[in-house]
Structures are given as C-alpha cells and as structure tokens.
Amino acid sequence: MKFGHLHDWLTWQESLHPSKIELGLDRVREVYLRMGLALPAVVITVGGTNGKGSCVALLDAILRHAGYRVGSYTSPHLARYNERVCVDGRAVSDEALMTAFQQVEDARQGTLLTYFEFGTLAALAVFSATSPDVLVLEVGLGGRLDAVNILDADATLVTTVDLDHAAWLGDDRESIGREKAGIFRTGQVAVYGADDPPQSVLDAAKTLGALLWVSGRDYRYRLTPEGWDWESSEGARTGLPLPRLRGGHQVQNAAAVLAVLQRLKDRVPVDQRAVRAGLLSAHLAGRFDVRPGAPTLVLDVAHNPQAAHALADNLRRLPRQGRLLAVFGALADKDVEAVVRPLSGCVEHWYLGSIAGDRGLGADALVDRAAGIQDGATRFGSVLEAFDAAVAAAAGKDIVVVFGSFMTVSYTHLTLPTTLNSWGWGGGGSGSGA
User: Fold this and answer.
1) 309 with 340: CB under 8 angstroms?
2) What is the pLDDT of residue 168?
3) Phi, psi (rounded to 5 degrees) for 281
C-alpha cells in the first residue's frame, strides 16, 4: 500500500493535482471504468445550493428504517474525513478508506485527479465492496461536471438554486440552475425541492425527458397543529412529526425527500413507520446545531446569502433573553456582505476570525467587505481565538452563533468534545441544510 496512515493519503491527494477544483468528467470517468466497480444499487443523487446535506441525512435515515442497506457520500466533513463515506449510518474505517484509495491509485495510471475526484472514486470503491441496496450521493459543486455525475442516477433531487460559487457556476440563478440540472437523466425521476425553479431547470428537464416534480406544483405540504402533512396526485402522508433537524425550512427539505421516495415506491417501497422514524432520528452536525448551555451555542455552516437568510430566520425563532454574539469567518470566494447582511440587525457584537491559507480571508478583509459590521466587530487572528473571546464575553443567557463556512464551524466543532462539560454544553439537535 502506498501509505500506511489515512492522514498521509489525504495530504498526498491534496498535492496531486495543481488545481483544487477542475470541473469535468472525462478524467474521473476514465479511472472509474478502469476500476471495474460493481454498483447494482438504486442511486439517488442530491444537488442544489443549500439543503443537500440535510436531504441526504433524511433519505439515509428513512431508508435505513425501512430495512435497506444504505451507502451515503457527502462533503465536506467537520471532524474526520471518514464522515464523508457511511454505510448503514456509520462512517467507514481508516482501513476501508485506505484500501479504496489504493484501488484508485492502481487504476489511475498517471491520470491527474483532484482531491474531491480521488475521494469520490474511493467512496464508490467502498460501496462496491459493501453492496448497499441504495446509494445516496451528494454533489460536491454544481452538478453537470461534478465527479458524482459519472453515475446515472435513478432519481435526482435539486434542493434549491441560489447564488454561490459564481466563478464556477455563473453569477445568476438561470446559469446556476442549468449546472445543477445537469444531474437529471432521461426518463428518470427528478425533484426540485422549492416552489421557485429557474426556467433553466424546467427547460433542462423537458429537453432531457426527465420526470420532474416541483414543490407546490406536483406535490405540496402544510403545517398542522400536530406536525405536518404531505400530498401529491400519487398519494399522501398525514400526521407526520416535524423533523429532528432544526430549522423552519427543514419541512421543505423533508417534503422534497418524500417526493423522491414517492416516485421510487415501486423499487424501494417505504412505509409510514419508516418515514416517521427517519424524520425523528436524522441528524447532521453544523446545521442550525443548537447546543443548550450557558451560553447557548449555535453552529451553522451557512456560507451564502440564501443560507444566511435561513439562519437569521431560525435565530429569530429561537427563544432568548440575552444578546446574540456572532463568531464569523469566511472564504475568499464568498459574497461576505450578502452573507452578513441578514444577521446585521440582530447581532449585538461580531467576533471576526481569520482563516489561513489561499482560500481564507483575514479579519481585516472581512471588515472591508462587510461595511455593516464595522462598528460592532472585534478582529482576531483565528476563528478559535474569536470563539474563545465570544464565549468569555457571553453571559449565561446570551447566544453565541458560529457561522460563515464549513471551516469556521469545523475549527469550533473540533474543540467541543473536550470542553462541553466545562462550558456546560450538551449535545443538541442539528438542522439547517444551509
């Protein structure tokens, strides 16, 4: 084996390709075909701007409660790389990943692969070895040219379309929608999880002959005093419990998931018991992840305008008697002002943490990009320093929200297992797919 430790494999993969991102399927498909993998499972591919992770978690939980063996692939991770590849709800071992990495390396034959492409092929190798009944795969970036799209999915879900990754996907919803809809397949199930599809999504489905359902048009949901109901022309599910995942928009995500499962009912039937159990058990760290304590801590990976609006709405619904303090760090390719704006009216003080590396922004750059936080911000050399300062300044009734990127939440999340007891925090539910 090329390396005996997972860390060494991952460090090497980061240096393998001169670009961190190179969209395109030719190279990764070539290696995939050489690997000769057997993947007889039903494949569900989930794309979209926000909500992907939540929908993968919901699909995984519901299908497992229905008795299916499920393989899920997500990115990025918060604490350990292994989180990206799960079988039956459990992250796979270092050994399984390293065996899969070696399979990719043996088949690569000099072909350059990005970190994400290498990891995607390794995930598929793990699934080939473990034979799940259903695969649930999260698109990494865009859809049409993302490595996950080398598989022809039996069902696809585009959660939402909004502005993010403009340099790669375009700077308007129509362009981005066109890229997201690239995961659709002729004659196969497709779902759009919101009621505002860009015309490009509708056009792509029509051109391909994908069997597209749109929220509010082909299926509907409504809140009730006891929970919520879902219905379509093909069936209904009533008396559903609210998802364990926190956040008002999680019912929208769950409704989209039920639409996918309704369309696949002949291949993977799911009963009401499994739906209820899955809704109540699905969890996902870092998505409106509320840790009760003194102060209350909220972790959310929101890093684009749509996700920031969802976070702001959820925070307004969260009961509080004290101040709202924000720990914020962002990457250089983000529209910082548009991400900050939804929270600018409710945050009492900002703790800005620098993120190192060529992708990160320093605290001074955050202030320059977001005029709305200049008067109420303190700058720090790292996210952890900003977090420590916010916690030290917070009173027991205050709320500290950590957001802005996966990296921002990851730095904080990694410190929590050893500090939960001393800070009085317990495990919390998780939620927003932002």
Assistant:
1) no
2) 59
3) -115, -20
Per residue in 190-214, pLDDT (tens digit) is 999 999 999 999 999 999 999 999 9
Q: Residue 267: which residues within 8 A CB-CB, separation 6 or more?
A: 42, 154
Q: What are the strands, taking DSSP E only, across 48-105?
A: 70-73, 85-87, 90-91
Exposure string for 326-336, b = 16+ CB within 10 A, e = fewer: bbbbbbeebbb
C-beta separation of 306 from 337 below 8 A: no
Which pLDDT score is estimated for 423? Answer: 40
Cα separation, 245 vs 280, in Å, equals 8
Distances (CA, A) of 373 to 285, 348, 385: 27, 10, 18
Give the residue among 265, 239, 224, 44 at the shortest CA–CA distance from 134: 44
In terms of Cα–Cα distance, which of 314, 311, 253 is closest to 53? 253
Nearest to 325 by CA among 301, 356, 296: 296
Length of the chain counted residue by residue: 434
For residue 295, say if its preceding peptide bond is cis, omega within 30 degrees of 0.
Answer: yes
DSSP 394: -
**Predicted model pTM:** 0.90
Token digits of residue 146: 């993302």
Say which DSSP state 58 is in.
Answer: H
